[in-house]
């Protein structure tokens, strides 16, 4: 089984190195690795954030372990050359449409959230975000109005097939958890949302065991602060999912702990921490590698069919925390390698 | 000066009645009132959520004091007949483009937030949201894809004139406050946001005394949880502003306390509480009227040029709270009229 390793920018290489150590320690037979350039690092080396060689590795791989992209040096490049295009391009080229972002508080870290402890402790939710459509991938550009004014535009849309696919992901995830699915849209304003809501309701007929509710996105943003414990699975579109999943992860408090998976129809997946490239602390050994280690765990579970090895990783991370492993973002002083050591010791 | 009173649905009539009592107690000379039907109430009475008679009152008025719209009975109506169209229609017809939503914790209520007290207490921000453009008002509809699939679409766009106008509002508000403006967009993905960012930067040349920063909307949703005290004024588009302003108001904790204003070029304005019509408690005297009372205060300040009377209302609300006035949403037992009494006693 081939794993593509795409470290990317900023702290990416440091955190990927620790995840690789943990994978190596599991001594799983038949795993091979290929590294590829993505993001600002790829642009600087070969002039494009997602070079053809990288895309080729990605296509051949069973799974991609991704660090982070984002580099202030690239801020003034044209859009198609910016680091973010690596992640958008991979999602589109490989049909990675189902982005899963679990948010759950580690008991040891319940104090880290800006939310009151009793509110934060109740968080155990999964956001299922569509990542192949919506206003992200519609026609877009700059044009002139009839009066000669500059105008930027982006077309938002979803078709029934796209919604049906992600709705099934949401219902199936809810079925495997606590049986509650909340679909988030803005159907009181957007036709895209109206189609979304109609199709989610159609699909719900196949899941009589799942309790479906609908919420407007503005209300969802409120409820995620007021009482995040009310949610089990949230399914939503690309744009709203971008906002709500980042909000939810911050409610958990320790953004350095949160992993994500983005899957396509054949369970090929891209796995990455939800935090970014953190250029301000890059190369200083301050980055917390645990979100990337946990992403490697999700990879073993979802794309490589190795749930027991995934369990081992998750247990080792929990044990390392219980043993007091704390990087600076968790209020401690351990460096990136020491955090990796702590997980290895707990394995 | 003519004030249009549009109570609307649910708790709307109850809370507007208390705001009216407070306005009457100020005995301001020359104020006249006309009532109009909006929302589900208007649909049920005359078949449209924003009847021509109501629009006519609105056009003639110096300011509109608005309760709330939203009625579950109307959920399955066609979009153009739903209660929300009253507010969208008024914003568009009167050119009400500048929606101001201050969020600040009342010291007496700092415990009410789901955020830790020290995080919530630091909140003192103003969201300036554009409300005449964006994906709200672009062409939208249902169509078929070439493969015959149903597809919903909505065109997102801003032109430079729209952005320039709201940017000036943001800079001026920042200048009158702590001099910090954060413009929120998604320029790494959206051309609409790229134009937004370009124009905000152009306008900033006229405000060298204001410190401008830019933030992606996903990061803004995180920062509003992590450290909302970092913000002074946030300026953003219609869609992102909808989400972030509701999130910010919930960070404050007591959503029954938050007022808003939406102004046009001639300072005609619509004033409303940010909470909704709360059909579940309508007619029971449980609604907190203070957000509407404070909205009346904003109306005196922004549209009627009566800042001293506005100060009196704000001081009376603060005093009523200090005296222990608490409706159920604030953990107390006072009914809607008693809350109004408490403000009148403090005036
Ligand atoms: C980098 C950016 C384009 C991306 C997105 O908006 O999808 C990121 O914020 C994410 O959520 O993965
Ligand atoms: C009712 C709805 C159309 C409206 C909006 O989305 O603008 C509301 O949520 C608001 O924020 O005033």
Automatic annotation (TrEMBL), chains A, B:
Pathway(s) served: Amino-acid biosynthesis; L-leucine biosynthesis; L-leucine from 3-methyl-2-oxobutanoate: step 3/4
Manner of cofactor binding, per the entry note: Binds 1 Mg(2+) or Mn(2+) ion per subunit.
Amino acids binding NAD(+): 276-288
Chief localisation class: cytoplasm
Entry's Gene Ontology molecular function annotations: 3-isopropylmalate dehydrogenase activity
PROSITE patterns for this protein: IDH_IMDH (PS00470)
Site-annotated residues for Important for catalysis: 136, 186
Main EC class the enzyme belongs to: oxidoreductase
Cofactor field: Mn(2+); Mg(2+)
Cross-referenced InterPro entries: IsoCit/isopropylmalate_DH_CS (IPR019818), IsoPropMal-DH-like_dom (IPR024084), Isopropylmalate_DH (IPR004429)
Catalytic activity: (2R,3S)-3-isopropylmalate + NAD(+) = 4-methyl-2-oxopentanoate + CO2 + NADH
Annotated transmembrane regions: none
Binding residues for substrate: 91, 101, 129, 218
Family of the protein in this entry: Belongs to the isocitrate and isopropylmalate dehydrogenases family. LeuB type 1 subfamily.
NCBIfam families: leuB
HAMAP family referenced in this protein's UniProt entry, alphabetically: LeuB_type1
Purpose of the protein: Catalyzes the oxidation of 3-carboxy-2-hydroxy-4-methylpentanoate (3-isopropylmalate) to 3-carboxy-4-methyl-2-oxopentanoate. The product decarboxylates to 4-methyl-2 oxopentanoate.
Name of the protein described by the UniProt record: 3-isopropylmalate dehydrogenase
Annotated source species: Sphingobium agri
